[in-house]
């Protein structure tokens, strides 16, 4: 009773907040809205767990604010998996042991369903419960139950027609197929991939293709039921059981096809499945109500909404947006999903009081039978929470540059090619997608077949204590402490010297400045030889998609300084004439130092400073300066520190023999260092920027990265001092 009072108080506290939100225009769905929904879910699910006997499972809300319950041993019922599924989603989000305990408590009584051959709904019952349990715990007990259940579902496959028979309880049907079965195919596809019979995949794909042929109409709308002659395969009936009319489109049944074709494509990558998913999706969106929540049947004249359909399709669209080939469609599907989540999380649909035990109001179960009309539905709540978790893992439209971590080494490996040799700069954004990880990002040679962590030379880790660290020889360490938070994006920069067997790593937290994480750490002890950055491995520590890497790029053109002007000279060609803009990043590796970055004509042999018409310096006093005709000077004081990166922009007017320099410190604004300085007065004639020299006292005391030259525009030309 104490637990219920606590949960009830939490729910009532949220009522005032939602009342305040109702007084203002709806905001676009975002992380804050997602967290508000999860807070409501935590309270409601904790209350349901406290009040529901183990072995009983919520289905739909009743007028008295309680759940209609279904026992674990009901073989025809299809909804028992959704409540434990919600509990597993709460555990996935929090990693809190109390949610895991609740989830296990309501999952295990469903074990007897693995032998159920009376229904097609084993996927609904067991992928939501045992499937999530295995994904989140890797306990082989859950896996074995799923494989046995997949065999039970496969027993309902009719090879003559190529379908899974949905059920035996309706005497008017002979060999029926319904669009609901698309959701249950995942059990077969998962089983075939995880040690079961390979033929299960073929059964699932054949059923999906028959659904596409006989349930999906040419315009993308759908029937609910098709009945066949089991002996000849002839079609006996097409129509509906739970929809408005035989030629109408029952909304939730249509959602099962949007979600189902998307899911089958995930497992098979069959282009026919993607095409089917796009077709049924586009039809649905063309018929959707302005608020993003459909009528219970897309053709009914009755103004009765079904929130469970919106929840399932929102979740499906967040996944489907990753598979569509064109960027415009990706963004459209993602935005449509957010529009639906925005509506469902508004006071019009989200229940924040005790009047309903569920999350979503206005669900419709079976309107023709007048059952479960305008109520909370456990499956609507489940797909709503699943959509929330999918949104939290991807809070912006998908990009082709997004890579997600995986548990298996093969799936986690990305090929970077064999040309990334010598000194390389790597940059990317990384977003942890769960509360605590033990996940690793590593690099290996292009010739290495990565099957273990020991084969990775460079490893960056988000550890189980909530911090970044980096492999240094035989152990993990960090030069500075850098914590990570879930759903926040961090920019990572890694500078690696393959010949020296050393690498440095910097991390920029959201809204912060760059922090040195690893300073010239040694490659992992015992790793295979590495001559190139050929493979990137994004290895999850707990589940697939623990973190996301975006915009990964390997940048050649990393130039270390050398102990001598001649040694440090690189050719830039002879065509850089007139007014030129030079840009690059410079990173001092020590402090202080005496380093020079200078330019000379393509015909000049650079042996000392006097050959450099244009040059800037990292001086021993710890500041940048530049040579102005006869001496070093600076228009403004710009200090430098070791292992920080400064962006440099120069505008060099060769005919006028003058130049200006701007420096942008880490996280700061651009500062004018040299305003219209004159070329060195005793330097040789300079008609082009043909050579650059990077000189320091010892090799590698500073690095120049990403050097570019381009002709200047008037806007970038130096402005003479008055």
UniProtKB/TrEMBL annotation:
Residues 1-28 form the signal peptide. Transmembrane segments: none annotated. Keywords: Hydrolase, Signal. It comes from the Bacteria. GO terms for biological process: polysaccharide catabolic process. GO terms for molecular function: chondroitin hydrolase activity. InterPro entries: 6-hairpin_glycosidase_sf, 6hp_glycosidase-like_sf, UG_Glycosaminoglycan_Hydrolase. Belongs to the glycosyl hydrolase 88 family. This is Alpha-1,2-mannosidase. It comes from Melittangium boletus DSM 14713.
